[in-house]
Amino acid sequence: MATFPALVSPSRTTCASLRRQLQVIWDEIGEEDGDKDMMLQELEQQCLDIYRRKVDSSRKHKAELAQSLADGETEIADLVSALGETASFPQRVKGSLKQQLSALKPALQDLRQRKQARMIEFHETQLQIAQICAEIEGNDINTVHPTIDECDSTLKRLGELKSHLKELQTEKALKLNTSLNCHIFCSRSLSSCSLSFCV
């Protein structure tokens, strides 16, 4: 009765153990040494090709992660600069690329939300400024479309715009008050004129 080599547990199978099993099987079959060497070289080449593809894909994935990290850090720097908030710049953490990206994402998301909220405030302020300017100049306020400089969305710039808005609101109120006083004066003058004609 022929004895067969014990099968190795799949979880413990290694290339070396499989190669030994293959050698035993080929010996039992009666394969020539030259054929065995050629088949082993083919197997080694196939293994090398598989490893090479895996190394190449892993290298590409690493480059993509590194690029994502660099892009995230650049975006954070741009957001921090635009918002004028240098204190909120997160420090790079030590660890793998995935750990660094995970640490970067919350800070990036927070800065994006803060910039979005700030841009809404800028838009509302600049829209009011443009509408008041259009009213003062006698233009249609429905055609007003303010442009917003997203590179400078600092609190200082927002404060300057709000200060300018208050000045315009004061100017508008003065003009309305003057116009109202003029209208009242004219109405009274016309009333007194019409009364004098009636007498």
UniProtKB/TrEMBL annotation:
One of its GO terms (biological process) is microtubule cytoskeleton organization. This is Uncharacterized protein. Belongs to the MAP65/ASE1 family. Keywords: Cytoplasm, Cytoskeleton, Microtubule. InterPro entries: MAP65_Ase1_PRC1. It is found in: Cytoplasm, Cytoskeleton. PANTHER family: 65-KDA MICROTUBULE-ASSOCIATED PROTEIN 5, PROTEIN REGULATOR OF CYTOKINESIS 1 PRC1-RELATED. GO terms for cellular component: cytoplasm; microtubule; spindle. It comes from the Eukaryota. One of its GO terms (molecular function) is microtubule binding. Pfam families: MAP65_ASE1.
